[in-house]
Request: fold
Amino acid sequence: MTTLPTSTAKKLGLVIDLDTCVGCHACVISCKGWNTENYGAPLSDQDPYGGAGSGTFLNRVHSYEIQPPDLGVGAAPAQLVHFPKSCLHCEDAPCVTVCPTGASYKRVEDGIVLVNEQDCIGCGLCAWACPYGAREMDVEEKVMKKCTLCVDRIYNENLPEIDREPACVRTCPSNARHFGDFADPDSNVSVLTRERGGMDLMPEMGTKPVNKYLPPRPKDQSQREEVDVLAPFLEPVATEVTGFLGWLDKALDAMPGSSKTEGKN
Amino acid sequence: MHPAPSVILFSTLSGLGFGLLAFLGLGMPSPTGWVAFVFFAIAYLLAVGGLIASTFHLGHPERAYKAFTQWRSSWLSREAICAVAALLTMALYGFGAVFLGTHWTLIGVIGAILSVGTVFTTAMIYTQMTTVPRWHNITTPAMFLSICIAGGALLAGQVSLAMPLLALAGIAQMAHWVLGDKALANSGTTIGTATGLGARGAVRAFEPPHTGTNYLLKEFVYVIGRKHAAKLRIVAIVLMVALPLALLLLSSSHIIGGLAVISHLVGVFAARWLFFAEAEHVVGLYYGKR
Reply:
């Protein structure tokens, strides 16, 4: 049934640290790689070597600029935030309840939201219902694709234990992605969320996302008052050039062909 | 939202077909024999034709039968069940009217309820979408239902009923536009809440995830038609309501009535195109497109 479970034993999900993400897109590529070769239909590309390439991705990295407000002392510098976005495995997943065939479901044992591709009719309604753009219809297979939280990795005993986490988490070179059980208050993800003020995306949608985002730490505000404490030491010592260099400067200025307006520098 | 022709055709034609079926079920009119056959044939062509058109947007129409299973949570599943139930019930009623010359009132009333119910379930598929604030309000079912009933009355030849119902449909459609234009702003969802970064300052989409387009942009961030939206709204309301009303006031002959139906249908088609083309899905916020 596409009705949602009232509660799940575990709440597996991700914590994404917007402070440390460097926007390298390695998670995008490892996700595409793993999920093309494993669970379900491959993630197809259309016109991949042509001029108008597009394809199915379960994880995409946006970049946003935040311009802090001017509080009367001059605006702080703008901040760039890289923003990976994939399925948030919501507790109240609207994508699941709209599914007419029962292809979409939320697992009772760990809360992962999955699509049974054999039952998917490709109506696209679940993608309409998702505010986050986490679901994409594969143009080739005509079924809905979404993040599986690498369900075929995290329980896979054929893999070394270190690899039993989602491909995006495993590959992240800046440790901006963390995988764990939010139902356990002492898990790494629960602690991170608590300590760093982990937040929900679009909380007003009432989807109760499991995945949390750690906000970027505020930028150093020193530029507001003083550009740099070392700046006074870098003031030019001599404003008028004298001695040999002064003579050379004047001599070169006097030579034909030099720009009169440039002057000394 | 991407205005898929199959879905627009479906909601326009089926809406009118189920509206006619509802009036036939209520015995307005209550023809028998050949006249009944023609009425039911028109109603079924519209309703079933629309339903068939709607399967064209499915990726796997061969699995469509599975859509009858999830009525407990899914409006799309309820729509499928309600549509089939309405068509079967009205087929029974129509059989009585065409071949036996009798009208089984109870079956007709049940069929009429199911017919209008089908249009209601269609409307609810859109209304339930919190992700599309323009649709997520009472004007969506009000508009779908009033247009279905007005079109049904028009096609069923119930002129005295059709005129006030058309006016009502026009009001519902305009209410949907007026309320819809403010819906996204009133929803409180912005790029700030979408990214969770709004409290830190003004958030601007700096760089999209890909240089090319993708499914999300094609399906949810449709913007092409907006520049003509105001003109199209006027065209839609004139063809859907004003012209049919003027024609009905002029005369109630079959030809004039036919012209009124065609004008109405084209108007609804334009309005439904706008219903999708103007709808802003909140996922566009992530792409800085709202």
